[in-house]
Amino acid sequence: MKIQKAAVIGAGTMGAAIAAQLANAGIPVLLLDIVLPDQKDRNFLAKSGIERALKAKPAAFMDKKNAALITPGNLEDDLAKLKDADWILEAIIEKLDAKRDLWAKVEGVAKKTAIISSNSSGIPMHLQIEGRSEDFQSRFVGAHFFNPPRYLHLLEVIPTPKTKPEVLNTFSAFGETVLGKGIVVANDVPGFVANRIGVYGMVRAMQHMQQTGLTPDIVDALTGPALGRPKSATFRTADLSGLDIIYHVASDLGKATGPDEDFTLTDSLKTLVEEKKWLGDKTGSGFYKKTKDERGKTKILTLNLDTFEYEDKGKIKVAAADALKNASLPERVKGLYTAQGPEGDFLRGVMNDSFWYASKMAGVVSDRLQDIDNAMKWGFGWEQGPFETMDTLGVQTVIANLEAEGRALPPLLQRMKDTGRERFYTNGEIVTPAGEPTAYQAPYLILQDLKKDATKVVKKSGGASILDIGDGVLLLEFHSKMNALGEDAIRMVGAAHKAVQDLGYAGLVVGNQGEHFSAGANLPLILMNAQEGEFDEIDAAIKEFQKATTSLRFSPHPVVVAPFNLTLGGGTEMALHGDHVTASAETYMGLVEVGVGLIPGGGGTKEMLLRFTDQVQPGGTLLPAVQRAFETIAMAKTSTSAQEAVSLGYLRPTDTIVMNRDRIIEEAKRQVLALAPEYVQPVMRTDIPVMGEAAIAAIKSALYGMLQGGFISEYDQEVSLHVANVLAGGRTNNRQARVSEQHLLDLEREAFLTLCGKRKTQDRIAHMLKTGKPLRN
What we know:
Layout: E1 6-9, H1 13-24, E2 29-33, H2 44-55, E3 70-74, E4 87-90, H3 96-107, E5 115-118, H4 125-128, H5 134-138, E6 141-145, E7 154-159, H6 165-178, E8 182-185, H7 194-212, H8 216-223, H9 235-241, H10 243-256, H11 267-276, E9 288-292, E10 298-304, E11 309-311, H12 319-322, H13 329-337, H14 341-361, H15 369-380, H16 386-393, H17 395-404, H18 411-419, E12 425-426, E13 429-431, E14 437-439, H19 447-450, E15 457-460, E16 464-468, E17 473-478, H20 487-503, E18 507-510, H21 523-531, H22 535-554, E19 559-561, E20 565-568, H23 570-576, E21 580-584, E22 587-590, H24 604-613, H25 623-634, H26 642-648, E23 656-658, H27 664-675, E24 688-689, H28 693-708, H29 714-727, E25 738-739, H30 741-756, H31 759-771
Parallel strand pairs: 1-2, 1-4, 2-3, 4-5, 7-8, 17-18, 18-19, 19-21, 20-22, 21-23
Antiparallel strand pairs: 6-7, 9-10, 10-11, 12-13, 13-14, 15-16, 16-17, 24-25
Helix pairs in contact: 1-2, 7-10, 7-14, 20-22, 21-31, 22-30, 24-25, 25-29, 28-29, 29-30
Signal peptide: 1-25
EC number: 5.3.3.8
Domain 3-hydroxyacyl-CoA dehydrogenase NAD binding: 5-188
C-alpha cells in the first residue's frame, strides 16, 4: 500500500485545511462536496473551501502555489474519480446517517487497495461502517486531525476491530513521515484520547474555579506557561475553541461515559451558551472580550461570573505563579502543586483530576501510556503529559494526595502503589496500563534522553553542547535563552570542528530540540558594548562570528544545519553556510537585522549576493540579482515556511525539507553520512563579480523614491545604503571587478561596526528588547 494520491470529501473548514496540508506534502488531492441547487457552479463549495484555505490566518498553505495540487469537484459529477485515490478521507457533517450513506457510495467506486478514513471527532468508527463489506471494513481507519491541521502536531489514528494491521501501519507511517504528524493510536471509544482527557480537564477546571472562588484570568495565569502549557491556558483556549463546542462535546461525553466520569457543566458555562449566546471568539464575547480604549489600543476584558459584566482587570498578579516565573519546569510544577491558599487548592484539585482520570483511562482510550502523554502535548500544547508530570512530582506523592482526598485509586495507580514505583518512565522502560514495566524506546532521537548517558556528551558549556549522536556524527546544540548566539555558543563552533577532526568523526550536525533553532545574535550584549563605546570588543566579536559561520562551509568535514521554527538573523547565517540544510517544514527564516538598524554581519549579506548572482547566465546583467538580494535583506523578508524560504533564497532547491520536525536531527545525520565518503574541503572564492558604484546608484535612486513616498525614514535609507555598499562590493568604478568572499566579509564587518556607533541604531535595539517591536526612527 502506498498513498500517492488522496481525496477529501467535505470542503468545510477542516476538510479544506486537511487538503491544504496534503498539498503541502506534495500529494495531489481531489476535494469534493455537495452541489448547491442555487449555484450555477456545481463545484462552488469545493472552490470556496480552497479559497478559504488560501486566505486562512494562520496560513493553511506553506506556499500558495501548493493550491494547484487540489482539484475541486462535487459528489454528483466526480464521484467516479475516487477510483484514482489511494486514501479517501471524509470531513462532512457529524451525523451518523450522513456518513453511512456516504460510505455506501464510496464503496461502489473506490479501488480495492484504497485506505478509507473518517475525520470524525465524536462518532465511533465502527458504527460508521456497519453494513459495509468485510473488505471495506478491513481498509477503514479513523484519522482525527486537530485544527488547524498544518500547525497542530497530533493525528489520532483509530483502528476498528476489523482494520487490518498493514492498513494501520501504512497509514500511521504516512501520517508521520509524509504529513509530519505525531501519531497517537487511539481506541474506538467516545472522545478518543485527546478530547476525552482534555475536555474532562477543562470541565473540571471550571468546577474547581467555582468551588475556590477564583476568576478566569487568575485560573489562566496558573494553568498557562507557569504549568508548562500554552499562553491560552484554560479559558482563553475555551474561547478560541468555541464555548458551544466545549458545551456539546462535554454533554455528549457525559452521556456516553460512566457515572463516575464527571463531565458536569457549570452554571456559568450553561448561561453563556444557552442564554447569552456568548460563544467565545466567534461571537466576540466569551470568558473574555476584546475592546479598544480611547487611543485605539486593544484591551482584554474579563467576564465577572457573578454579574456577567466585563471588567478591565489590568495586569494580573498571581503570587503562586509569579514566585516561580524564573524556575525550571520541574521546579514550577512542584511549587504549584504544593502552593497554599485558594490558588494551591485549585491547582491540586485540577492536577489531581488530571492524574486520576488519565490513570483511569489507561487501557481504555489507548493501550499505551505514552499515547495519552503525547496526545496532550501534541493536541493541547502541554510540555509534559499527565504521566510525565506525575514522574516529576513522584508517583507515590501523587498517590498519597489522591488517597488523602478520599479517591479510590484506578487499577494502574493501585499497582504502582503496591510495587512502590516512583516513575512511569525509567531507563528504557515504561509502565503498561496494567502497571507492569515494558521496554520503551522513543520513535526518534531525543537529545535530552541521549544526554543522560555521560559518554555521549563530548563537551558542554553554558550556551552549547557537543553530543555524539551515533554512527560517527557529532551534533552542536545551542541551549541559551531563545538559543541566542552569544560568545559561549560561538566558541563552541570551533570546539565542535576540532572534536570532529581530533576524534575521527565523519562530520557535524548543527541543530537542537528547543523551542526555536535560534533567534539570532545576543542583542543585549551588542547594545551594552555599543553604549559603553567598546567598539574593539564588537569588532572582535564580529570577526569571531564570521569565523564561526564560514567554518561551517570551509571545514575539512561535511556540516549539515537543521533549522526549525524561528531561525532569524545569525541563525539564518548559520544555515546559509552549511554544506547542506535539513529544515523542518515549519521554519521561519529571515535576515532581520535592518529592523534594529544593523546589517547581516556574519556572512549573510555576502551569501545572499553569491546565491543570486550565481544564477545569472554568462553575459547576463548582475543588477536584477543584486536588487533581489538587496530587497530580501533591506525589507527583512522572513519566510512563513521552509518552502517559502526556498523562494526567498534562504534555502537552496537541493536542501532537504522534512515535514516532521521530530525527524530533522536524524535526517541531518543521514545527510552528513551521505556527504562524508567523497567530501572535498571547499575553499573561499575570489571570483565574485560585483558592480560597484553602478549598483549603489541604482539602489540609491530606488531608496530616494521610497523616502519621498513616505515608505521609509531617513535612517532606514542610511542603513539600507550600508547594505547596498556590501552588495556592490564597495565603491569601485570597475564594471568587470571581481572580489573575494573575505572582501565582502570585511565590508560587512565595517558596516556593522559603523552602525553600532549610531545613536539611532542603539535606540532601535533598545526598543526591540523592551517591546519586541521595531522602532521606525
